[in-house]
Amino acid sequence: MQRILVAGITGAGKTTMAQALAARLQLPFHEMDSLVFTGPGWAVDPDFHRQVAKIAATPAWIFDSFGYPEVRDLLWTNADTVIWLDYPRALVMPRVLRRSLRRTLLRERVFGGNVETLSSWFSGDHPAWSSWTQHAARRAEIDRRTTDPRFAPLNVIHLRSPREATAWLGGRPHPTAD
């Protein structure tokens, strides 16, 4: 486990899991949304593909993403492990709604200094709408990819609940002090 994708739907806890695992395994963590959105107005970095390709070519990394379409195959081809947080919609929706509501009300700055606004809640690509409408399709796509010969041999760790994820993560080694 040196090149790891933490995959799942918005609100599953990909970033939290990826950061915890990166600390445990002492591997570099890369937040996908921070690489994509680099400026105000949710501007997409024109160098995004090259940046991800450069990271993917290194011997060790963890991404908190299923992968944006333009880099998805690149990441899945280079990964050796996929940790699939396959949680039910009933679990992820309250999470994503709470997070987006907090970000909106507190005007928290996220990727590229952007903020979620009240008007963004009515956009189809708002995290809440995305999580709701893409849940089944994302699950089907991840399932298909985990068995696709193009991406073999992938070590797939399929976690179906936060309890399973916590137990699995608890079995990972802790860093030792030098």
Kindly describe this structure:
- This protein is α/β, with parallel strands linked by helices and 178 residues long.
- It has a domain at 3-89 and 135-170: 3-Layer(aba) Sandwich (Rossmann fold).
- Helix content is 47%, strand content 15%.
- The protein is built from seven helices and seven strands; from the N terminus they run E-H-E-H-E-E-H-E-H-E-H-H-E-H.
- The chain has helices at residues 14-25, 32-36, 48-56, 69-78, 89-106, 127-147, 162-170; strands at 3-8, 29-30, 37-39, 43-44, 61-63, 81-85, 155-159.
- The strands form two sheets. It has a five-stranded parallel beta sheet, with helices on both faces. A two-stranded antiparallel ribbon has the order 3-4.
- Helix 3 packs parallel to helix 4 (69-78) and helix 5 (89-106) packs across helix 6 (127-147).
- It is globular.
- It starts with a strand and ends in an 8-residue tail after the last helix.
- The mean pLDDT is 90.
Summarize the structure in short:
The protein has 178 residues and is α/β, with parallel strands linked by helices. It has helices at 14-25, 32-36, 48-56, 69-78, 89-106, 127-147, 162-170, and strands at residues 3-8, 29-30, 37-39, 43-44, 61-63, 81-85, 155-159. It has a domain at 3-89 and 135-170: P-loop containing nucleotide triphosphate hydrolases (Rossmann fold, 3-Layer(aba) Sandwich), CATH 3.40.50.
